Amino acid sequence: MHPIADKAKLAMLCMQRFSWEQGTAMQALLECGDLEAMAMMAEEAAYRSLEDGRVAMMGSETAVNDPCACGEGMIVASAMPGHEHLKTNVEKLLSWSLELAPRSEKGILFHLGDGVQFWNDSLYMLPPFLCAAGKYDEALHQLYGLFDALRDPETGLLRHIWDEGRQEFADGAFWGSGNGWALAGIARVIAMLPPEKESDRQKLISMNKALLADVIRWQNEDGSYHDIMDKPESFKEWNLSQMVAYAMYRGMADGWLEKDWLPKAEFLFDSVVNAMDDHGRISPVCGAPFFNKPGYSVEAQAFFLLMDAARDKCLAKSSSIIC
Question: Is residue 146 a contact partner of residue 120, using CB atoms and an 8 Å limit?
Answer without folding.
Answer: yes
